[in-house]
Amino acid sequence: MSRFWRPGSEKPSASLVDDEEGGVLLLPTNTNSSSSSGFGYASLERQRQRLPVYKYRKAILYLVERHATTIVVGETGSGKSTQIPQYLKEAGWAEGGRLIGCTQPRRLAVQTVASRVAEEVGVKLGEEVGYTIRFEDQTNPGMTMIKFLTDGVLIREMMEDPLLTKYSVIMIDEAHERSISTDILLGLLKKIQRRRPELRLIISSATIEARSMSTFFSIRRKNSLPESADDLPNPEPAILSVEGRGYTVETHYVEEPVSDYLLAAVSTVLIIHEKEPPGDILVFLTGQDDIDAALKLLNDEIQHLRKHYFDLVILPLYSGLPRGDQDLIFAPTPKGKRKVVISTNIAETSLTLEGVVYVVDSGFSKQKCYNPISDIESLVVAPISKASARQRAGRAGRVRPGKCFRLYTEEYYLNEMQADGIPEMQRSNLVSCIIQLKALGIDNILGFDWPASPSPEAMIRALEILFSLGILDEDAKLTVPIGFQVAEMPLDPMISKMILSANDFGCSDEILTIAAFLSVQSVWVSMRGVKKEFDEAKLRFAAAEGDHVTFLNIYKGFHQSGKSSQWCYKNFLNHQALKKVIEIRAQLVRVMKRFGIPLKSCDRDMQAVRKAIIAGSFANSCHLEEYGQNGMYKTIRTSQEVYIHPSSVLFRVNPKWVVYQSLVSTDKHYMRNVIAIEPSWLTEAAPHFYQYRTPNPAPH
């Protein structure tokens, strides 16, 4: 490989100074901000040179050459995600069959960034530039040089190649999001660097605490490498700050707290369209349900108000969006129109939308939350942090001075809002995380070097569940073969156990289909103004046993229709999601073949299917409260109040005993993907977890 700037050669035209923690801080000599006018019309090469990160190209390559770890702090839109991997390739880091890896926390960001980089390099996606996400591999082993992937996929690659020997440089992008996979990955990469000191890491982020990350990767002086190791990089991290290309953003707050952020967001969009000059609007809401509701409200208002409101082009943005809809988001706004993008926090840092001048910030996002005492993990709508609020506001200053409308008071922002978010590691169920570390041979989980330590209660609860599933033995080691097989499957451990148990019940064919459905977002498409027809379509497939068996009916109907998109449209089903189900199922069939497990069908014996589901999900069992209100259930282990979600086919049916797949929390805890069971099946499936207690006889 043609090394870039060997020690002793000319340094880049900037001053490098040691910071207080032994890292290196780069102070650029040229601070003139590059103009962004005519951005869409320049050639791709000119566009690349206009990005703020371009003037740091030499400095980045110099630091990567000299230091084992380089921390790059730069605003979203600076170009770091798309440009740094290309700079590394141009400098020769992918020569000799080696790979440049770039991770993202979200699948949609992986696909979008990889697609953009392939376009800039001038190659077909999947050749020199490719990506890998769960259940989808768009790479060519002999040809791919730059590979984009999710954090979770890179962790899975370590199971086959523990030292990631194929990679010369790994860039961890959006590290500030502190997802559970990002934190595990950072801890593992730190271990790998001890064995492979030549491996270069780039930690890239929009708001990351550079000092704390530098401290995490710093090696104590007594352990540092001898000075004579000329061919090895300096183990101390370097820190580089890349300025953004932002314009000033005027921030507006509400005078009084709003009671309904959804209605407030919709009315703010209409006021902006009425009173402000042209420019696209980006609205931050919490999730797909909120976004669909806002789309309906906005479209209803437009129909009512008419006039120039027809100039609004309203588009949703969330991670489960079909590819065609994603492309509309990034397409230029038609002349004379104003685009309104209603998004989750995916547009906060992962994706850059050109043309946005106005941001409406609800002040909330959907966050994973886990209580190890009640053993309830759910998605809750929670207030964002100041760091997130600043990121959201920054989206408005990309093309010209913009405005951010915050749907909360200035007093709340200054005095009550948290400075930073809580890392996902400290608010998540750790079952999947522990299995991954065990599969990588890390037995001392408590002694693992975490960037943020998880709670001991969550750790103990996860170990208990894994032991009860038969995945860990009494010494907390993976069992043979089940533990290792579960670790190898790219699924939630409960679903993996369900698949492996299905062989005993003779229904592995059906359970693979159910597992594939549980691995995609909702297969239903709810349309505005046709609730009656939508409910009727759902009833055509509904099974008395519950949602899992309903999935089997949908799968059968889809196959009988010849996988017709017309049939999907007529039945309010998402054609893309069902095609994905078939792809995932085919991959799971290959995994089963590799394990030597035959596929068996139970020929409509739904009791066998339900028993197989319980084998994986027995910990999520509930019973209907006899004297409870409005279909209230209680979890069997911890007596938490839960309710069947309105999207379930068992909503209002309320069987006495049920098992659920996941919980979502708003005003209540709602169970999604629910199936009716018999209580005696629980003690059969998990006698160590449940004992059957006969009620006390009534006194005479």
Task: List the defining traits of the structure above.
alpha/beta, Rossmann fold, 3 domains, eight-stranded mixed sheet, globular
Overview in brief:
This protein has 700 residues and is of the alpha/beta class. It catalyses: ATP + H2O = ADP + phosphate + H(+).
Q: Strands of the biggest beta sheet: in what spatial order? A: 6-5-7-4-8-9-3-10
Distance between the termini: 89 Å
Domain count: the total is 3
**How many E strands?**
23
Strand content: 15-25%
**What is the general shape?**
globular
CATH class of the largest domain: Alpha Beta
Can you walk me through this structure?
- It is a single chain.
- This protein is α/β, with parallel strands linked by helices and 700 residues long.
- The chain folds into three domains: 14-242, P-loop containing nucleotide triphosphate hydrolases (Rossmann fold, 3-Layer(aba) Sandwich), CATH 3.40.50; 249-425, 3-Layer(aba) Sandwich (Rossmann fold), CATH 3.40.50.300; 489-685, no CATH class.
- It is built from 24 helices and 23 strands.
- The strands form four sheets. It has an eight-stranded mixed sheet, with helices on both faces.
- The chain is globular.
- Mean pLDDT is 87; it is low at 1-42 and 221-228.
